[in-house]
Structures are given as C-alpha cells and as structure tokens.
Specification:
globular, about 40% helix, 9 strands, 9-stranded mixed sheet, alpha/beta
Length: about 325
C-alpha cells in the first residue's frame, strides 16, 4: 500500500511540474468543463482557438433546457458537474443565486446573449386555411385558434417560464383565468423548447400538428425556404426579453480556467457566431454581429413585457398555479 502511495505521489508531482512548466503560474487541470443547456453551440474551430490562446481543452456537458440545467446545478452545488456554466437566464437566475450555484453573487452572472421570447406561427398553414394570424398571445384563447398552439412547461423550460411571466404582467391576478381559457382552447404543453419547436410545430423540421409555437423573434430566420421567404413569422408584440448568463460554478475544481472560458464567451470571436449558431442576439456586440437577413426575418420585439417582474418572490407560486390549472 505504501509503495502504491509513493508511486501515486511521484506521478502527481510530475503532473504538477509539467503543468507549471507549460503555464508558469497554475496547476489547474488543462481541461475546463462547461455545463450548458441543449441549445448551446461552440464550434470545433472555436475550441481550437481557445486552446491556442490558453492551452486549455473545453469539455461541454449538456443538461437539458435552462430549467433542467439550473435544477441540476443546484442539486450538485457541493460537488459540481462542471467548472463553468452557460444558459441560466433571468427567469432562473434567482434560483441559481439562492442555491449558491455561482461563484459569489449576482456579479458572477455574466450576460452572453439575449433573445425575445415570442410566439411564432406557420405562414403556410394560415394561408392554406385562410385564417388571420393572431396579433399577440392574448388572442390565442379565441375559438378560431383552438388546438393550434404548443408551449413549454414553465417548471422545466425557461421559455415557458418567460411566457408565464408575460401573462402575470399582462393580467395581474387574472392570469389564472387566462390559463384556464388557454387550457379549454386546447393548448399543448411540452417539457422543452426543443420538443415544442422541432417536434410539434408544423413550421419547422418536425412538421408537427401545431402551427403556433412559443419560440423566439429570431426563429423565422432559420426557416427561410428556397424562394427566399421564411415559412414562419413572429408575433413581435408583448414578448419577453430573455438574457442568458455564463459564470464560474461555486466549488469548481478549475475556477481560474473556468473564468478564462467565460471571458472567451464574451470575446468578439465567440460573440459574432452567436446569431447564426444559436439564433440569439450577442450581448457584447448587439446591434452589430447579426446577419443582414435578420433585418427582415429576425427583428427584435416591438414591445416586451414581464422581464421586470420579481421572480424571486413570484416564481414558485406562479408555477404551482400553472400545475393546478393543467394538472
């Protein structure tokens, strides 16, 4: 046993010495792990660039939607599954702070991108059925839109929680009445944005049965067809402005290098890729750094609502009410 310990100690010393020789100032591991939601994209070229700049390799761990990501990081706060995170947004940031997920306080939440959560609709469907598209979400409870809408569950999805917030801001205590009307009108609830948009929405790759989906103002830019027109359009009124953050995880094994990765996500090199890879607006570059085509298909919301609500005091009760209404 003593001989094994001695050998292990020698290996450890050798590893530390080698790392010190490479960096001159650190003995942290050369791989930095980032926990993200499923929509996070970083290219092989960017990973190579980061390694060239820092000597570090990036490992990405996808943990579901933003809600699932936040819940997982809260549950593993003492022994985190990564060094850094990306994808906690302003609907879940309070839960992350209360769960001591970030390295210190709100200053540990670095804005990386933002997007406007708006309803999208399938233009082809509405043209084929000679149906006028709704102007905003308040019209979705009308009989002519029965069984046409799919949204995300606010208990597990940041987009779903964003929409829940808009209804609270719009209707006050009457938001419960709106949800009951929405249920009666046949709204479908999915666990995640990916399920709603890519499976159940008729206007995207899944070609599902629902021509209205809770998504983003930028989503139509991803649905441009061979004729140069988008199959979908966004209802850009009364949307929710969502900001996504990155940061160093509390109790991370590799905090110094995690900070370098967060800084890279704010760099021009990464920021200029956000629009086309994740269909969000880059926080550090906007209004620059977005494709010219977005002037037609990816414009930001004309009005936003709900993002100034106090999620710290309201989030849990809103979700509990949603569950009571929908079961």
């Amino acid at each position: 046993m003593h001989e094994l310990l001695k050998k292990a100690a020698l290996v450890t010393v050798a590893a530390i010495t080698a790392a010190a020789a490479l960096t001159g100032c650190t003995s942290e591991p050369k791989t930095v792990t980032i926990a993200t939601h499923d929509s996070f994209v970083i290219s092989a070229q960017q990973i190579k660039e980061f390694k060239k700049q820092t000597g570090l390799t990036i490992k990405v761990v996808h943990l579901g939607d933003a809600g699932a990501l936040t819940n997982k990081l809260v549950l593993t706060q003492a022994t985190p599954v990564a060094d850094a995170f990306f994808g906690i947004d302003n609907t879940f940031s309070n839960a992350a702070l209360e769960g001591n997920v970030v390295v210190d306080d709100s200053s540990g939440l670095t804005p990386i991108d933002f997007g406007d959560v708006c309803f999208n609709y399938d233009r082809y469907y509405f043209e084929a059925h000679q149906l006028t598209a709704p102007a905003d979400f308040t019209e979705l409870v009308k009989p002519e839109y029965q069984n046409l809408t799919v949204i995300e569950n606010p208990a597990s999805s940041s987009t779903g929680l964003a929409f829940l917030a808009t209804t609270v801001a719009q209707f006050g205590t009457g938001y419960q009445t709106y949800w009951r009307q929405f249920k009666t009108n046949g709204v479908k609830i999915d666990a995640s944005w990916e399920d709603a948009y890519y499976v159940d929405f008729s206007g995207s790759s899944g070609k599902g049965a629902y021509p209205i989906v809770l998504s983003y103002s930028t989503s139509p830019a991803d649905e441009v067809r061979d004729d140069g027109q988008s199959q979908t359009a966004s209802m850009n009124s009364k949307c929710f402005r969502q900001t996504e953050y990155a940061g160093v995880l509390a109790n991370a094994k590799n905090p110094g290098n995690a900070k370098k990765l967060v800084e890279y996500l704010r760099s021009s090199s990464f920021q200029k890729s956000i629009a086309e890879s994740m269909y969000m607006y880059p926080s550090a570059l906007y209004p620059k750094g977005v494709p010219a085509s977005w002037a037609k298909f990816g414009t930001s919301a004309t009005t936003t609502i709900g993002d100034k609500l106090n999620f710290a005091t309201g989030r849990q009760s809103w979700i509990e009410t949603f569950i009571k209404v929908f079961g």
